[in-house]
Records
---
Amino acid sequence: MGDLDGKVALVTGAASGIGRATSELLAERGARVCVVDRDTAGGGAVADAIGGIFVAADCGDTTDVDAAFARCEADLGGVDIAYLNAGIAIGVADITALDDETYHRIQRVNVDGVVYGARAAVRAMKRRGGGAIVATSSLAGIIAFPTDPVYDGGKHFVVGFVRSLAPTLEPLGITINTVNPGITDTNIIGRDAKDALDRVGFPVMPASQIAHAVLALVTSGVTGQCWVCQAGREPVPYTFRDVPGPRTGGTTSWPPEDAQ
Ligand SMILES: NC(=O)c1ccc[n+]([C@@H]2O[C@H](COP(=O)([O-])OP(=O)(O)OC[C@H]3O[C@@H](n4cnc5c(N)ncnc54)[C@H](O)[C@@H]3O)[C@@H](O)[C@H]2O)c1
């Protein structure tokens, strides 16, 4: 018996890394999992290992995403948990070296994929009477990341999108949050970077640590939060600073009088 008995989870980017670890944990806790990835061999193997189903899909393609959610509903009876996690990095720091193909390749999965996934999830969860959505942003969704500014911008998009959707989804019984991992030991960081981090003793998290943050988010009932995950720490909801409000009549101090 697990805390997710009777629940159905759809996980994108589930063939490896964080998505795979999360699929395994959700299944271990009793959920039936729909493993979604463009990697057919890897995704099929994960689904077989956890007794789930696999749907091959390109998360940057709206038809594929809708079809994956439809398969999940048809085969597993609905969608209670959607973990929108598929993503790539491009590592292009020099904006003059960014070609259009590379730009669109990352935007379509890291940005479009989250929008298409959230839309399909909300449609399915309305039919179910509620649910929990989590999207994988990144620490790069909160801080600057000069080695991959397009990746950073996409992850900031995920933060703003999720926080903005949360109030509209709350009355429907649907929560939506992000996980914002620091450096995690998966294929995306590459072997060379991992070796370099190991050499300087920089702590790199196992993917299972992010999986536990996702599990905590989908069972907590919170919404509109962005949970920072760092090595050796509990996940921490990021606190966004309030912005200065406008000044009201008579108290304006800007622009200076001599500039008016
Ligand atoms: N590993 C890190 O340090 C780190 C840190 C912060 C955020 N993230 C984010 O975590 C998420 C998962 O990445 P990971 O670290 O597990 O890397 P990963 O490369 O191990 O896994 C990514 C998965 O997404 C799949 N995928 C990529 N493009 C796809 C597409 N168009 N359609 C369907 N599937 C697609 C891949 O096949 C792969 O299985 C990504 O969104 C990534 O940006 C990773």
Note: The domain at 8-259 is CATH 3.40.50.720 (Rossmann fold).
---
Amino acid sequence: MPEIESADRNNFIDLSGELEEALIEIGKALPEWSMDGTFLADSTIQQYRAELGSVPQFRELKNALLSALSAEAGGYAVVRLGNIAQALGIEKQFLRVATALLAEVAAPFQPFQRWPLWKTIGTNLAAKPGMSTGIGYNAFHMDVVNATQPPDYTILLCVRPDPLGAGASILSDARAAVSRLAPSTRALLAEAAYSYGSFFELTEVGEEYAPFPVLDGKPADVGFVRFTGKMLAESDLSKSHARAAKELADELIAGQDTFTLQRGDVLIVDQHRWVHGREPLADGQHDVPEENRRVLLQLFLRSPQ
Ligand SMILES: O=C(O)CCC(=O)C(=O)O
Ligand SMILES: [Fe+2]
């Protein structure tokens, strides 16, 4: 399988060797971060910003990232930090560099109270295959779909891809998919008739939203396409609402981008515009020792109000 099947390469941001070298040095110098409740502390953001400000070419990287995430260009980006990961390992120093970069997009936070800022998503052979740690197809969804204020961005950092070569990421432009639907389908999706999942131990994402409309009628910079393919299988939807959701699911698949994250890749997804998911991991995971299985780290960003 080619590494990128249909993704627009402008969404993939490579760093010059010079910038990589500089960020490796910065990684060794950045202090530990502090949290202020569920958010990265403002003092840390200021400290990290000051350090990055001294790096030649950092401004260009930031501009490339913001432009890949802009409404005009798309809504997701992959920043390729593999060489920095190679030099620093994906441990504290590397995570400080990645956190510093992401803090330039919006405020890093962790709404799941029991997880650290970067939450590990490993591979669990006993998990339901379609769940985040499972080995199956993780259908298109937005994260924290059943909240009144889901995170504005979701971030997935690849620590280790599936060693058997599968588990590609899938991304789809939810706004474009909705625009291809019939008005009658859109009308059904605008009804508060959908629900999915439980809601507990969450902060800074508003209230539980159940039932919710998939289409909230708000402009793309504030509203969401509150969709998760998982509700098709797991929620009790009326026939007509289920059919409307299935039509949206099919359009999301028809327009999907597919690519396999490599070690050190940081995927940033604007949840107001794009949904994400994962192809199944390869067969044979039982023969892969646990320490070699796929691992991602996840965090979220909150845009200024
Ligand atoms: O495994 C993946 O690539 C995606 C995981 C995911 O979307 C999630 O945990 O919310
Ligand atoms: Fe997700």
Note: Residues 239-254 form the longest helix (16 residues).
